[in-house]
Each structure stands twice: as structure tokens, then as C-alpha cells.
Design a protein that fits this description.
Elements: E1 3-12, E2 15-25, E3 30-34, H1 41-49, E4 56-61, E5 64-68, E6 71-72, E7 80-83, H2 95-100, H3 108-121, H4 137-149, E8 155-159, H5 167-184, E9 188-192, H6 195-201, E10 204-209, E11 212-217, H7 219-224, H8 229-234, E12 239-245, E13 251-253, E14 256-258, E15 269-275, E16 280-282, E17 289-297, E18 301-307, E19 313-319, E20 329-334, E21 340-342, H9 345-350, E22 359-360
Parallel strand pairs: 3-9, 3-10, 7-8, 8-9
Antiparallel strand pairs: 1-2, 1-4, 4-5, 5-6, 10-11, 12-13, 12-15, 13-14, 15-21, 16-20, 17-18, 17-20, 18-19, 21-22
Helix pairs in contact: 3-4
Length: 366
């Protein structure tokens, strides 16, 4: 395995910033730590880089122990590159000088050759003599990435690399960064609080909560097979529909049955079914009608908030040529490929739990 964090614990006073966190990345994979502020994702990054020490646990790179019992390799000897949140470019150095800065162990000529090679790879060969203040935000980000990659690190870490960019620029740069990292064959770990950035960039996402790793997996699995109600609500948009599971593999819901062909799990009693907006389909021929109580135009589609006859509300993603007014009744049906259920929220609260593990089908990973 290329990069591993095993059973990592890091405390600050009474607070456990990391509470037994474990995950791993294969060579060439892009991982992402996702979660709300204070969940521990940046602490994990800093412990891997060597800027924070673990109270217990291990950090390994290509099988080499970087942090563990009796071992704490200094940051500059770990072979790990880091792109800081504020990019930390030196304003008094040119672009070329910034990239050369991490290559001081090389002879002057070799430094220049390597720096020019990286600037060519990130598409900034023509900006070598410019200063950071003369560059756009996206260009500055590429300089910071080139500087981190110049010493040929085993892994590059990026801490909130898009936080200072406007929405339109960050959407473009997320795609560019993935293409660039993949073209270089780089293994990378990115910290972000933005799920769209994580979905667009990562091969593996780790959702963190209160110092623990809630779920680690492919973006597809976090969206369609969340392991907890927290994961379901944090990743994407979620609605929950009560259902009765009679033990026959069929869930009875207000929108009709979810049959065995839908990968249901045999159970008994009441459950909440997770529904994503794309699971609730507008169909004029459907017998069940729902009233539109709100709508958000998103260009290619509308996000409708629908009220069922019971008064329960669901979200539905509908192509924008289905332009209906608030107050209209439209036909709806379920079109679910992955059925994920949770204990009813009232039952969870009465048991004194803060979150509940979901019941999801486990088909082969895509």
C-alpha cells in the first residue's frame, strides 16, 4: 500500500481531534478527507506531513514507518509534498524561483532544469519570470502544486486548495487539478469541506465526523450506499420516506412497494428509506400525485420540493423542460437502484443514539 494511516489518535487537551482513524491509498490514487469544520481532517493531514505528532497509531509511506512507536521522521525527510491552504508562495521570488525553492539540495543547473520541467507540465512555462502577484488565482495554485511536486515526493497533500477561489473558477480548477495529478501519476490526499469538490476530484473519499472516520470509499458508494444517517444527510441531498418491512423482501411505502429486484434487505417493522432527488421521478402517467411546494431552477433541471398526500415532503430532480408552477399537482413514482434503510429517527432518539448505521445492499463495488 502506498500511504497508510492506522489507528491514529491525536488529542488537544480534553478534545480528541483524531480518534482511531485508519485509511489507505494505493499508488496513483487521489483521496479526499471531507467533513464539517473541526472534524479532524486537517489534523490528519498535518500528522501525515509530520507537523503534528500522533499520541498513538502509525503513518506509513510505501511500507516505510514515518510515525509509530519510537519513530517520528521529521517533515523534510518524509518525501511528502504539501500545498498549504493559502498557497504560501514567496512574493519576492519569481514563479521559477518559487518552484526552485524546494530543490536547494540540487546543483543550480539541476534545480533550474527540474523547475522548468514542472512549469511546463502545469502549463506555466511562459510565466517563469513573473511574480505571484501578477498571476491569477488558478495560476498561483498551479505554481504551488509545481513547487510541491518538484522534489518528486511519494505523496502530495493539499489543504483546502480551492477555498479562496470564486465558485466558477474553482469548478474549472477542480477538473484541471484531477487531470494534472493523473497525468503525473501522483498520489494525493486532499482536505476539503465541499462535497462537490470531493466528488469531482477523488477516487476515494473519507467522511469524517468528530475525529472519527464515518465512511471511507468511492464517491459513488458514499452517495448511493451511505453507512449512516449522518453520511446520508451530509453527502448529497436526502429525503426519508417511512416504510413497513414485512420480512418478505418488499418495502411498502407511500409511493408504492420497493420489490426484491431493488436489492432490499429482509427485515421487520418500520424503517426510513433514503431517497435521493434522482430517485423520485416525475411521471405524468403515475397514479400518485404530489403538490409542488417549492422549486429551484438549476439550468438543466429543476429541484422540486414535493408534498405527498400524507404531508411528507420529498425532493425530486426533474429535467428543466418539465416547467411546473408552485402549487401544481404532478405524477411521481420511485426509480431507485439502491435501497438504503435506517431505523426511524424517533426510535434512534429514544434509544439515546446520535446516529444509526444503515442497512444497505452490498453488491460488488463498481
Amino acid at each position: 500500500m502506498w500511504l497508510e494511516l492506522r489507528d491514529a489518535v491525536r488529542t488537544f487537551g480534553e478534545r480528541r481531534a483524531l480518534d482511531g482513524v485508519s485509511f489507505e491509498l494505493e499508488e496513483g490514487q487521489i483521496g479526499c478527507l471531507l467533513g464539517p469544520s473541526g472534524c479532524g481532517k486537517t489534523t490528519a493531514l498535518r500528522c501525515i506531513a509530520g507537523f503534528e505528532s500522533l499520541d498513538s497509531g502509525r503513518v506509513l509511506s510505501q511500507g516505510r514507518l514515518l510515525t509509530g512507536p519510537g519513530v517520528d521522521v521529521p517533515p523534510h525527510e518524509r518525501g511528502i509534498g504539501l500545498v498549504f491552504q493559502d498557497l504560501a508562495l514567496f512574493p519576492h521570488l519569481t514563479v521559477l524561483g518559487n518552484v526552485e525553492f524546494g530543490l536547494l539540495s540540487l546543483a543550480r543547473g539541476a534545480r533550474r532544469v527540474r523547475a522548468e520541467e514542472l512549469l511546463h507540465l502545469v502549463g506555466l512555462a511562459d510565466c517563469a519570470d513573473a511574480y505571484p502577484a501578477q498571476l491569477s488565482g488558478g495560476q498561483q495554485q498551479r505554481v504551488a502544486l509545481a513547487r510541491a511536486l518538484a522534489p518528486r515526493p511519494s505523496t502530495v497533500l493539499l489543504d483546502e486548495p480551492f477555498s479562496s477561489l470564486d465558485a466558477a473558477l474553482r469548478e474549472r480548477l477542480v477538473g484541471e487539478l484531477r487531470v494534472l495529478l493523473k497525468s503525473l501519476g501522483a498520489t494525493a490526499l486532499v482536505v476539503t469541506h465541499d462535497q462537490q469538490d470531493a466528488f469531482a476530484l477523488a477516487d476515494r473519499i473519507g467522511l469524517m465526523r468528530g475525529g472519527r472516520l464515518e465512511q471511507w470509499g468511492a464517491p459513488y458508494d458514499l452517495y448511493h450506499r451511505p453507512c449512516s444517517r449522518f453520511a446520508a444527510e451530509f453527502v448529497g441531498q436526502a429525503s426519508f420516506l417511512p416504510a413497513c418491512c414485512n420480512g418478505s423482501g418488499v418495502l411498502q411505502t407511500e409511493l408504492g412497494p420497493l420489490r426484491e429486484g431493488h436489492e432490499t434487505t429482509v427485515c421487520g417493522g418500520l424503517v426510513d428509506v433514503l431517497l435521493r432527488p434522482d430517485d423520485v421521478v416525475h411521471d405524468d402517467d403515475a397514479p400518485l400525485r404530489a403538490r409542488i411546494v417549492d422549486r429551484v431552477f438549476r439550468g438543466a433541471d429543476f429541484l422540486y420540493t414535493l408534498e405527498l398526500p400524507s404531508g411528507r415532503r420529498l425532493l425530486s430532480l426533474v429535467p428543466s423542460h418539465h416547467d411546473h408552477r408552485v402549487g401544481e399537482q404532478i405524477g411521481v413514482r420511485l426509480a431507485t437502484d439502491h435501497v438504503v434503510t435506517f431505523p426511524p429517527l424517533d426510535a434512534v432518539r429514544s434509544a439515546g443514539e446520535t446516529s444509526a448505521a444503515g442497512t444497505a445492499a452490498r453488491p460488488p463495488a463498481p
